[in-house]
Amino acid sequence: MTIEVKVPTLGESVTEATVATWFKKPGDSVAQDEMLCELETDKVTVEVPSPAAGTLSEIVAQEGETVGVDALLATIGEGEGAGAAEAPTKDAPKAEQSADNAPAQTKPDTSGDTTDVMVPALGESVSEATVATWFKKLGDTVAADEMLCELETDKVSVEVPAPAAGTLTEIVAREGETVAAGGKLAVIAGGEGAAPRAEAPQEASAPSDRSGADVEDAPSAKKLMAEKGLTSDQVTGTGRDGRVMKEDVLKAASAATEAPAPQAKQAPRAPVAAGDEGREERVKMTRLRQTIARRLKDAQNTAAMLTTYNEVDMKAIMDLRDEYKELFQKKHGVKLGFMSFFTKACVHALREVPEVNAEIDGTDVVYKNFVHMGIATGTPQGLVVPVIHDADAMSFAEIEKAIADKGRAARDGKLSMADMQGGTFTISNGGVYGSLMSSPILNPPQSGILGMHKIQDRPVVIGGKIKVRPMMYLALSYDHRIVDGKGAVTFLVRVKEALEDPRRLLMDL
Start and end of every Lipoyl-binding domain (predicted)? Predict the structure, then answer.
């Protein structure tokens, strides 16, 4: 049987990559999930694991070649590697069977009376996660589909249920460890009296496991070791079979700089004053928070970001909402809020200024003939942006229902990857927290984001007279590489006009 190794999904708007390095050559035995090669895109480096155990029969795409998504990279045939992939030889045929019928990582591997708990599919372009919380401990009895642990990716949290009933006998990946999609998390024995394995917690980090084993360190770890002047002997690997990961190199590098501290460099942090020890708390950033920080900084470094401001008189919408909110809720089963008005107003303006709804891809401008509206939502874990797909084809009631559903899922940590992909424009409402004025940061690769703010009574001049009106500041941040100042100002003026006179939305003016 021949198994094909293909180019994985490379991420949103990335369609091709270059084969950078092959770690194996034809004829080599490979284990399942062992790294075969490394691909480089214009944004990230992608490692390609072996989908099954066997022998590398043929390399189709050589180093330096450009390949598209789902292109054939190599083929793997049956051979010595099939028997060496996993410790129990009798499991190899089962691995082949699951490769034929379904992705091996999503199907529990049962051998004898034990069942492996595997990392589930994490979503498009997500290859690893961090073990956040174990709800069970060694020796606990678990029921089928009972929640065992929670994984945290850079986008969503994923709960892992027990694939079968039994006793938790081994925890392979402890809290805080990084695991790859399809990696092994734990082992369940098929009975209540099975004894947990005593040595399990030390297996992942024992440096002696590397000796004599042909384990490839992560390419990102190799590059970082070269930059830091470290060797693999100086780094304790926490990956599979003692594989050195990037996080391991960072830990080793920080330990090396902290250990001998003879007045080398001035510490970046201010010294802790006497008596303040114990009053600080150092907490590792969650993967979601790290991703938020990285994406926001990338947006600032990449886009020529500029913000234009205006203000809108909210009286017309507030009067309309007060008049129809009870009838609206009675008929549609959802409250009439402000977000549906803003969404409709933005859709109306995007039709007139399509570049605000476009994105840059290399040297091309990609115009979207639809609107997938991102609605920025604050959660206890951080800011997420669920997407209302095809908002331009929705009614007020459909938009309000979609926003309510996505907001509830965001707060409960139940958003899927599909819920947060494909956005073409974003609305962020800082006014719910009391913000009077701000400059929102773009959500790449989008070219525009509208910032809403607090509604505040202010004196304004209307018809030569001073009147008190509920006013809101609006802010449009845009990518000046693709959106000119005229287009940005026109967009914001059209939003203002539609909100101050909602009848314009009905008449498409």
Answer: 2-77, 114-189
- In angstroms, the CA 473 to CA 312 distance is 6
pLDDT score recorded for residue 306: 92
Range of the domain at 130: 103-195
Q: Is 476 helix (H, G, I), strand (E, B) or coil?
A: strand
372: annotated active-site residue: no
The DSSP-derived string for 159-214 is: EEE-SSSEEEEEE-S-TT-EEETT-EEEEEESSTTPPPPTTHHHHTT-GGGGTT--
- The DSSP element (H or E) to which 379 belongs, if any, is strand 377-379
First to last CA, the chain: 63
Alpha carbon distance 114, 191 (integer Å): 9
- Does 9 reside within a domain? yes
Pick the catalytic residue: 214, 361, 412, 484? 484
Which of the residues 109, 480, 501, 508 is marked catalytic? 480
Domain boundary among 52, 71, 101: 101
Is residue 35 assigned to a domain?
yes
Specify the pLDDT at position 12: 60
C-alpha count within 13 angstroms, C-beta hemisphere, residue 431:
16
Q: Are 10 and 19 in contact (CB under 8 A)?
A: no
Q: Specify whether 312 is located in the same domain as 448.
A: yes
Are residues 125 and 237 located together in one domain of the fold? no
Question: Please, what sign has the CA dihedral across residues 299, 300, 305, 309?
Answer: positive
| 291-300 LR contacts (CB < 8 Å, sep 24+) | 291/154, 291/155, 292/382, 292/383, 295/443, 295/444, 296/441, 298/444, 299/441, 299/442, 299/443, 299/444, 300/441
| SS3 at position 299 | helix
- Asked whether residue 95 falls in the same domain as residue 133, the answer is no
- pLDDT for position 352: 93
CB of 361 within 8 A of CB of 445?
A: yes
Active site residue 480: yes
pLDDT at 450: 95
pTM, 2 dp: 0.50
Same domain, 370 and 442: yes
| Number of domains within the chain | 4
Instruction: Please list the residues that pair with 59 across neighbouring strands.
Output: 74
Residues 123, 178: one domain?
A: yes
CATH number at 117 reads 2.40.50.100
